[in-house]
Amino acid sequence: MIDIPSVGSNGHTSLSRIAARRAAEQQAATPSAGAPRGDSVEVSAAAQLLAKLSDLPDVRSDLVDRVKAEIASGDYETPEKLDAAIDGLIEDAETF
């Protein structure tokens, strides 16, 4: 017949120690009452900038091509356009 020692004797771990260890492991795996619940997301500054860029209007390539041609021919810079540009810059500066 095989001699089986009783639980907790001869250096074996007792059932109460096993139960205590399992309870501690479960408690460590369970979030505490003060911990936030649910998922959270942090959006980086680069992602925020990309989101803003996607909201910008499309480039009007026909207008850009026309203005480039006017600049190249010397017809773009008129006193009226320069005054309008300066006025726009002043208005922008006043909003800051």
Question: What can you tell me about this protein's structure?
Answer:
This protein has 96 residues and is mainly alpha-helical. It has four helices and no strands. It has a domain at 59-96. The N and C termini lie far apart (93 Å). It is 56% helix and 0% strand.
Question: What are the salient characteristics of this protein?
Answer:
96 residues, mainly alpha
Topology overview:
Blueprint: H1 15-29, H2 45-54, H3 61-73, H4 79-94
The chain-level mean pLDDT equals 79
The largest pleated sheet is described as: none
Gap between N and C termini: 93 Å
- Rg is 37 Å
By secondary-structure content and strand pairing, the structural class works out as mainly alpha
In total, how many beta strands?
A: 0
* Percent of residues in helices: 55-70%
Q: Given the structure, what is the number of helices?
A: 4
Secondary-structure element sequence? HHHH
Q: State which percent range the strand residues make up.
A: under 5%
- Spans of at least 5 consecutive residues whose pLDDT stays below 50 are none
C-alpha geometry: rod-shaped
Summarize it:
By secondary structure, the protein is mainly alpha-helical. The protein has helices at residues 15-29, 45-54, 61-73, 79-94. 56% of the residues lie in helices and 0% in strands.
